[in-house]
Write a structure and sequence with these properties.
Shape of chain A: elongated
Helix content of chain A: over 70%
Strand content of chain A: under 5%
Number of helices of chain A: 6
Largest interface: A-B, 36 and 37 residues
Radius of gyration of chain A: 24 Å
Oligomer: homodimer
Order of helices and strands of chain A: HHHHHH
Largest sheet of chain A: none
Chain lengths: ~210, ~210
């Protein structure tokens, strides 16, 4: 699909090249107008979809981080803490990083929907979004997988029989982290599409 | 960027629309020829890059699977086996699946470079490649992260002090799996670009 702007330019160029007929036929102009209305609607819908994914990522990863951090040991208590296990530290910190990043991206997405332009310069924004989505999605999945394996190995051991609440809390945190990863992966698909669109068409939307 | 074929067609169409001048000016034809030579070179280079990534994935994941499967317990021996630990089963089987898939993809890639067409119908091939690359990359990373956590927890325990060879072998297998994941992730980027290209231009290459 070509952008309507470019289609119109092409038609005019070719018209000029082929014998100096300066008035283009009215059909392309109507088409262009029709296309631009349709593409604006599609663009708006895509932007809103991205915002929804970002917001879902923010909610899940923030909840996961809070659940994990709230296992911190009270002074004098003997119950285990998330800082005692490297895999749980990885889960908590990865979720916190993703939550911060998603907060920024929700802001950037709202900015784009209301203002029509990207928050950073377009080329920077599309690459920034895609690279971070991709890397953070892998990071979050890796953290959650390691966390799952640790949680499985803790089951049935003293840690979990003595302080069951700690194990349940970290299980919930890991599950929430997987949900966050799901939405971050979906965001990565859409932002990947925007990058490809930008490379191919010079614009973040192909519509 | 438009495909040269389409560009030429457009020029001819517009020429016919604007007053029946049937001979297009020679400039677009030269441009089209120039574009097509450049794009064929680029297409070839991209195809070869994909083949290299596929082949690297195949080598690493096959090696990882073999390393993992070779820890199988001999009859009567007391040394541990990969089947004793769920995380190591996950690593071994994920690597075997990725190796099989990569073997198919190396074949498809060679087919495409030599024949110029995709092995499956184009729309099916681009979506098949991308979906599998994406899902298998996540699967392999998840397996390797879980395997790493297990290997860490085994360190210093009886399993590793009594049969050190088993621990070293599974460590190597996990490391090889991470290398396989790296190349699979790179393949996923390229095949994602092909899908986006296909959606936008109706052809798997934007060149």
């Amino acid at each position: 699909m070509r952008s309507p702007q470019r289609q119109q330019n092409q038609t005019q160029e070719t018209v000029l090249r082929n014998g100096g007929i300066e008035t283009p036929s009215p059909r392309p102009r109507i088409q262009a107008h029709f296309h631009s209305t349709v593409s604006e609607q599609k663009l708006r819908r895509l932007n809103i979809l991205i915002l929804v994914f970002r917001f879902a990522t923010l909610c899940f990863s923030l909840a996961a981080a809070i659940f994990m951090f709230s296992t911190t040991r009270a002074r004098g208590s003997k119950s285990p803490s998330w800082t005692d296990f490297e895999a749980l530290r990885f889960v908590g910190i990865a979720n916190a990083i993703v939550a911060l990043y998603s907060l920024f991206e929700v802001g950037a997405s709202v900015w784009e929907i209301t203002g029509g332009t990207t928050f950073l310069p377009e080329v920077l924004q599309v690459w920034f979004d895609f690279a971070h989505d991709q890397v953070f999605a892998y990071m979050l999945l890796s953290a959650d997988s390691a966390g799952t394996e640790l949680a499985r190995s803790l089951k049935g051991k003293d840690t979990c029989t003595e302080s069951n609440a700690f194990c349940i809390q970290s299980d919930i945190s890991i599950a929430l982290g997987f949900a966050g990863f799901l939405f971050l992966g979906l965001s990565a698909l859409l932002s990947g599409f925007r990058v490809a669109s930008y490379i191919i068409n010079g614009s973040r939307f192909h519509l």
